[in-house]
Specification:
This protein has about 475 residues and is mainly α. It is built from 24 helices and no strands. The chain has helices at about 10-15, 20-30, 35-45, 50-70, 75-90, 95-115, 125-145, 155-160, 165-175, 185-195, 210-230, 240-245, 250-280, 305-310, 310-315, 320-330, 340-355, 360-385, 385-395, 400-425, 425-435, 440-455, 460, 465-470. Helix 1 packs across helix 2 (about 20-30) and helix 18 (about 360-385) runs antiparallel to helix 20. It is globular. The protein starts with 8 loop residues before the first helix and ends with a helix. About 35% of the residues are buried. The model is unreliable at about 1-5 and about 465-470 (pLDDT under 50).
């Protein structure tokens, strides 16, 4: 029977609650991570690492088959390729180049053959998570062959002096808390976890149940907000004639709410998945200043920071954290040899767009991110050079209205920027941008033209010259 068969029990349930069978299977697979974590905690905690590897491998393969059938074999093929890569050329530049080329190529071919006009839940979803994980292991083995003094602090935390075995790679790959939707975590963290490094005293089980349940509860609340929100503003509403005929200010308001609701879908998945990781003890991250254990080692979204920030930089720092850290460590920082930070950032965002898929919407989304982050940095720098303006903006009486204005600008701008990511095809996102008169692109591109002219005329360098000189 096909996994998409509507006469299955899960298919009937999906129709009843108004979702797709594939989405319900994925949600069920994420939630089943909690009882699996309890099983691991009760029977395999502090047991042989090999037994734990086998347990995680079998759990991940079972969940993969439950969701994607025999297409889970795509991940098996890539795991075997990584093992052979590390066995014969591991620790070399060639190994890293091969990993990036092969695994990204495999993923892109998968996107080509499975892609449609919509965001489909297919085997490429866990495979994109796997792609970064396998490339990261190649990098970590490469770093492990370097002299310690040549490694950066973050490289020291993940470097592998010994290439992992096939069983270790399998356990790391199919760990049920991160196989389907993430989070990303290094092989070193995984090996420390199964080796009992995070457990404290031997035989003592980590006090991670309550932190895990809090992430579960928060994830379910966010999922509920998403479900309710889509009843009022469906994902496809901004493509309708009704939206197109609204007055401009109302379009802006609807777009702002739409983007916030849509992103809660991803936030909920990350929180639920992180919670199952936390329940195993995988997310241990040392202790705070009061000596309390921290369980944010695999945190993919910081809800409080994400909801309260009023800058794009703050938004990015609190959203999809592990992926951002991964690309910063393995892509952006490795491009230092180019000697151009802006070029490195552009290449990193291009890599992220390709990693997400072939749809034009991904590339427009990350192009938007490039524009808005550059603009935010330029504006901040310009304000710093104008003491009178900075002092005026820091007046206590203006803090609340300024915060409200910045928050609305951030929420609308965020929705505007990620909209192509959701709608995917150019015909769709161009239609929405047209109905909004390309308002943000006019602001972003207009600013960059003005700032470029100001720099060419050396107007920027003349502002606050003493500060410029100190820099």
């Amino acid at each position: 029977m096909s996994l998409e068969a509507s006469d299955s029990w899960i298919g009937h349930l999906a129709v009843t609650i108004g979702t797709t069978e594939a989405a319900l299977r994925l949600l069920f697979s994420i939630l089943v991570g909690y009882p699996l974590a309890i099983v691991h905690r009760k029977f395999l905690f502090h047991k042989s690492p090999s037994l734990q590897h086998i347990f995680f491998l079998l759990c991940g393969l079972t969940l993969g088959y439950f969701n994607y059938g025999l297409e889970v074999l795509h991940s098996v093929i890539c795991v075997l390729i990584l093992y052979l890569n590390l066995l014969f050329i591991g620790g070399t530049v060639l190994s890293v180049i091969f990993s990036i080329s092969f695994f990204m190529g495999y993923l892109l071919i998968g996107y080509y053959y499975t892609g449609t006009q919509d965001y489909d839940i297919k085997w490429t979803i866990p495979h994109c998570v796997l792609t970064l994980r396998l490339i990261g292991v190649s990098y970590d083995v490469y770093d492990g062959r370097k002299r310690v003094e040549k490694l950066s602090e973050d490289q020291k935390k993940t470097a592998l002096v010994k290439a992992p075995s096939l069983l270790e790679i399998g356990g790391h790959t199919y760990f049920f808390g991160g196989f389907l939707v993430g989070p990303q975590f290094s092989m070193r963290r995984y090996m420390d976890f199964v080796g009992g490094v995070f457990a404290g005293k031997k035989g003592q089980k980590p006090a991670c149940i309550l932190p895990a349940l809090s992430r579960l509860a928060l994830g379910l609340i966010i999922l509920g907000v998403f479900q309710i929100g889509t009843l009022f503003i469906p994902e496809q509403y901004i493509l309708t004639i009704s939206f197109e005929q609204e007055v401009f200010w109302k379009k802006m308001l609807i777009m702002t709410l739409w983007g916030k609701i849509v992103l809660y879908k991803y936030v909920a998945c990350w929180l639920l998945s992180e919670g199952s990781c936390t329940m195993t003890g995988m997310t241990y991250n040392g202790q705070d200043k009061n000596g309390s254990d921290l369980w944010d080692g695999c945190c993919n979204v910081k809800i409080w920071d994400n909801e309260t920030t009023c800058t794009f930089d703050g938004l990015i720092q609190s959203f999809n954290i592990n992926t951002n850290l991964w690309v910063a460590k393995y892509i952006f920082k490795r491009l230092r040899f180019l000697g151009n930070k802006l070029l490195s950032q552009a290449i990193t965002l291009l890599f992220l767009a390709m990693w997400h898929g072939l749809h034009s919407g991904y590339y427009m989304c990350f192009f938007n991110e490039f524009l808005v982050m550059k603009m935010e940095k330029d504006v901040t720098s310009l304000v710093d050079r104008l003491p009178a303006v900075k002092a005026f903006l820091n007046l206590s009486s203006l803090q609340l209205p300024i915060y409200i204005l910045k928050k609305f600008y951030l929420l609308f701008g965020m929705s505007y920027c990620v909209m192509p990511f959701v709608l995917l095809s150019a015909s769709r996102w161009l239609k929405v941008y047209s109905s909004l008169y390309f308002v943000c692109h006019i602001i972003y591109i207009g600013w960059h033209v003005i700032y470029f002219v100001m720099k060419k005329m050396k107007l920027v360098s003349r502002l606050n010259p003493d500060k410029s000189k100190n820099k």
